[in-house]
Write a structure and sequence with these properties.
The chain has 5 helices and 4 strands. By secondary structure, it is α+β, with helices and mostly antiparallel strands. The protein has a domain of 126 residues. Helix 1 runs antiparallel to helix 2.
């Protein structure tokens, strides 16, 4: 049919060609439409291309296969550290917590007594020595045999023949007056006479700083010969331990009774037997 149209377009002039062609085209279309349509499977007609249709060009997509990643090496197990023969040092011991000291400005309530915290007992603390019991004092006889007991004190009043008058008129009257005040005015002793000498033996050989001097002990004797009071030291031997022993010896002596209505004041000279030539320094 196209060829037919081309032939006709050459026959008619160009000015009529357009109209004739249009009429023929319409007639041919009517013939075609009046023809019986055979049944066939419908076909999908492609969409006509237009000027504005996108030129869809399907580019082939190349699939690039990446090389397989190398497998990561399996890590070898680390060696287990062998315990050292030297033991690990012990962990530092933290000091015990010190309890807070309460502030003096905020004392605890009066009705709630604060219990006293007992001091911790330490096993390494030394055991305190027991308090020694006080020892009994030495007797005079024990003191006589102890060299450290011989303390020298120079307080002797020498009883020589030249001093006997002074002793008779000064020392004895003063002693009798002091005894009368202690016994009372109604029992004032009378002046008696000198008694036999009281001899004392120095019992050790240790040398003394100075030889012992003569001592003097006064006694108040009642009518029956007994003592009214303890003997009194009137003159020292310069060694207190010898003086104490002389007083003990005088207290144990028996004196001659008398017929005086008043007690008698008597005295004894004390002599210490001491060998300065044969003592040990």
């Amino acid at each position: 049919m196209v060829a037919l149209f081309k032939d006709l377009s050459t026959v008619w002039p160009s000015r009529w060609g357009g109209g004739v062609l249009l009429l023929l085209s319409l007639g041919l279309h009517g013939v075609v439409l009046s023809m019986p349509v055979t049944e066939r499977s419908p076909e999908v007609e492609p969409l006509p291309a237009t000027e504005h249709a996108l030129d869809l060009t399907t580019d082939a997509i190349d699939v690039v296969q990446l090389p397989a990643s190398p497998e990561a090496p399996t890590p070898e197990p680390e060696p287990v550290p062998v315990a050292s023969a030297t033991p690990a040092p012990p962990p530092p011991v933290s000091p015990p917590a010190v309890p807070p000291v309460p502030s003096p400005s905020a004392p605890p309530p009066a009705d709630v007594p604060t219990p006293a915290t007992p001091a911790p007992e330490t096993s390494d603390s030394p055991t305190p020595d027991p308090t020694p019991e006080p020892s009994e004092p030495l007797t005079t006889a024990e003191r006589l045999r102890t060299p450290s007991e011989y303390e020298y004190i120079n307080r002797n009043k020498s009883l020589t023949a030249d001093d006997f008058e002074r002793f008779t008129f000064e020392v004895v009257p003063g002693w009798i007056e002091a005894v009368s005040q202690n016994l009372g005015q109604d029992v004032a002793p009378d002046l008696g006479k000198e008694q036999p000498t009281l001899s004392i033996q120095y019992p050790i050989t240790t040398c003394l700083p100075a030889p012992p001097a003569e001592g003097l002990v006064g006694v108040i004797v009642k009518a029956d010969g007994s003592l009214m009071q303890a003997p009194e030291l009137l003159d020292s031997t310069n060694y207190p331990v010898l003086d104490d022993y002389a007083l003990e010896q005088a207290a144990e002596k028996s004196f001659e009774p008398h017929n005086s209505p008043s007690p008698l004041a008597r005295w004894l000279t004390v002599k210490v037997v001491y060998d300065a030539a044969n003592c040990t320094p």
